[in-house]
């Protein structure tokens, strides 16, 4: 099986807080006015990505990994994770505030759900005026104070809300209480997990008048109650991979592109590019693949040398 730069059919998710920007800004084929998420690369059970381009179109990512694990995932990734694809890539459109939530760490997620935890990062692609994120506590707190404020519906008063702009990056380790605010389009990179504990949902109801389920008890021992710094500063040197986040689960670089860049990889890991601005192309073995803003591309690990050219901004993700 000959591998090449792979794109996948977007897995579109309606959400009570979703909107239409995934279509107007990121060219996704949504038909609903409340589309909140586009899962770009996923092997979450029930939501496995299917190839959209080339000779392998129609094949699932799990099928490709099963047949070519080391060639696709990379030597180190395969040794560590076997045939599991360890990351999940998304774009999110928050027309309204998301629920305030937290994700359990690896140990707790494994024990309760036989799942990975959910360490994640956000890159802000679009922000309405005064749009905000909630990221952790304003000051060191504790379970009793948290529960008291939750009961009194004053939880927002002890959480840290931050005004954001395009290009801002936040790294959220598991156990960090957080929420994406209204008026934001976010690129999200995370461990392969769909485990979320919802703490507060602003008393919203769905079309049938039902409130969404909360997970207050489950979340109690999953929360880091200390103040933490989630904002990441990074350089924007042209035609270079600028470090944003480097953690045990993934490495993410910022690649501002104007012209041509020759990329050489070791074969240890797959690489993913998320186009967050502009357009570009990848040339591999004389074949050119063209991409636009909102595209997400999986470069199999065996593709060690290729050329990227164009004018735009890319997130470059792999596992160190």
From TrEMBL:
<dbReference type="GO" id="GO:0004476">
    <property type="term" value="F:mannose-6-phosphate isomerase activity"/>
</dbReference>
<dbReference type="Pfam" id="PF20511">
    <property type="entry name" value="PMI_typeI_cat"/>
</dbReference>
<keyword id="KW-0479">Metal-binding</keyword>
<protein>
    <recommendedName>
        <fullName>Phosphohexomutase</fullName>
    </recommendedName>
</protein>
<dbReference type="Pfam" id="PF21621">
    <property type="entry name" value="MPI_cupin_dom"/>
</dbReference>
<dbReference type="InterPro" id="IPR049071">
    <property type="entry name" value="MPI_cupin_dom"/>
</dbReference>
<dbReference type="InterPro" id="IPR051804">
    <property type="entry name" value="Carb_Metab_Reg_Kinase/Isom"/>
</dbReference>
<feature type="domain" description="Mannose-6-phosphate isomerase cupin">
    <location>
        <begin position="244"/>
        <end position="318"/>
    </location>
</feature>
<keyword id="KW-0862">Zinc</keyword>
<feature type="binding site">
    <location>
        <position position="103"/>
    </location>
    <ligand>
        <name>Zn(2+)</name>
    </ligand>
</feature>
<keyword id="KW-0413">Isomerase</keyword>
<feature type="binding site">
    <location>
        <position position="178"/>
    </location>
    <ligand>
        <name>Zn(2+)</name>
    </ligand>
</feature>
<dbReference type="GO" id="GO:0005975">
    <property type="term" value="P:carbohydrate metabolic process"/>
</dbReference>
<dbReference type="InterPro" id="IPR046457">
    <property type="entry name" value="PMI_typeI_cat"/>
</dbReference>
<feature type="active site">
    <location>
        <position position="198"/>
    </location>
</feature>
<feature type="domain" description="Phosphomannose isomerase type I catalytic">
    <location>
        <begin position="8"/>
        <end position="115"/>
    </location>
</feature>
<dbReference type="InterPro" id="IPR011051">
    <property type="entry name" value="RmlC_Cupin_sf"/>
</dbReference>
<dbReference type="GO" id="GO:0008270">
    <property type="term" value="F:zinc ion binding"/>
</dbReference>
<dbReference type="InterPro" id="IPR014628">
    <property type="entry name" value="Man6P_isomerase_Firm_short"/>
</dbReference>
<dbReference type="InterPro" id="IPR014710">
    <property type="entry name" value="RmlC-like_jellyroll"/>
</dbReference>
<feature type="binding site">
    <location>
        <position position="120"/>
    </location>
    <ligand>
        <name>Zn(2+)</name>
    </ligand>
</feature>
